[in-house]
Amino acid sequence: MKAAVITFPGSNCDRDLAVAFAHAGADVHRVWHKDTALPEGVDVVAVPGGFSFGDYLRCGAIAAQSPIGAAVRAHAARGGYVLGICNGFQVLTEMGLLPGALMRNAGLKFICKTVKLQVATSDSVFTSAYVRGQRVMIPVAHHDGNYTADADVLARLQGEDRIAFTYSANPNGSMGSIAGILSDNRRVLGMMPHPERAAEPAHGGADGAALFGAVMGALALA
Ligand SMILES: NC(=O)CC[C@H](N)C(=O)O
Fold first, then answer.
1. For position 113, which CATH number holds?
2. 104-121 burial, b if ≥16 CB within 10 A, otherwise e?
3. What domain range is 152 assigned to?
4. pLDDT tens for residues 29-87?
5. Any ligand 1 atom below 6 A from CB of 51
6. Ligand 1: distance of its center to the CA of 33 in Å?
7. pLDDT interval class at 222 (50, 70, 90)
8. Which of 52, 86, 105 to mutate to test the pocket of ligand 1 (most atoms within 8 A of CB)?
9. Considering the entire predicted model, what is its pTM?
10. Is the CB–ligand 1 distance for residue 141 below 6 Å?
11. How many domains does the chain divide into?
12. ipTM of the assembly?
């Protein structure tokens, strides 16, 4: 299974994300935002957390216009898998690959702590190793994690079982306590919590490792 991890100026979770995929057994390629092509035969494109372009304009707004964007959109359009974590989730909403927006946290403070999540669906390659309703401990670190969408989008996400994770105790004001969502073909996942920061016991918890293992397992068989 081949994974590509994109780096923007200001990304700071790109290496951790590459390590998490590598530990799961993936063949990991690093891609610079000014590149215009993804590695040949890539299965999963991963957009990491951080502060791309200093979070100027809106988090993820400038990164979404990067030269690599066209290749990421084309990958998603042909049914390729895309994972966006934290700033990566923000980038994917700015690219239009996921609906809604990540607004400033309701409390206007940067939140950096490990939170309890509920797995809202196991019906995706990313969440298939979890059981629906399972509680997992995963860190968050953001100031713009307040998921917001209009009523129609929320109803569709709920009706189509596209909410991947919810917060057990909503830390940031997200509508429906949403922590992560899936695209309509279930192959693009955006989530604010950082599974790559809970991917091995030395991190203080390894609940995120199953996400990378599940992607690896599913795509290795495909
Ligand atoms: N850890 C991150 O990816 C930070 C995301 C984003 N820049 C925010 O603070 O909201």
1. 3.40.50.880
2. bbeeeeebeebbebbbbb
3. 2-221
4. 999 999 999 999 999 999 999 999 999 999 999 999 999 999 999 999 999 999 999 99
5. yes
6. 17
7. low
8. 86
9. 0.97
10. yes
11. 1
12. 0.96
The residues annotated with a catalytic role in the active site are 86, 194, 196
Calculated CA dihedral for residues 150, 152, 44, 85, nearest 10 degrees:
30
Q: Which phi and psi angles does 95 have, rounded to 5°?
A: -80, -15
Tokens of 98: 């996921």
Contact 59 CB / ligand 1 (< 6 Å): yes
Structure tokens at 12: 């700071």
85 Cα to the center of ligand 1, angstroms? 9
The pair of three-digit structure tokens given for residue 186, joined into one six-digit string? 């279930």
C-beta 88 within 6 A of ligand 1: no
Q: Which residues contact 30 (CB under 8 A, 6 or more apart)?
A: 4, 5, 7, 14, 18
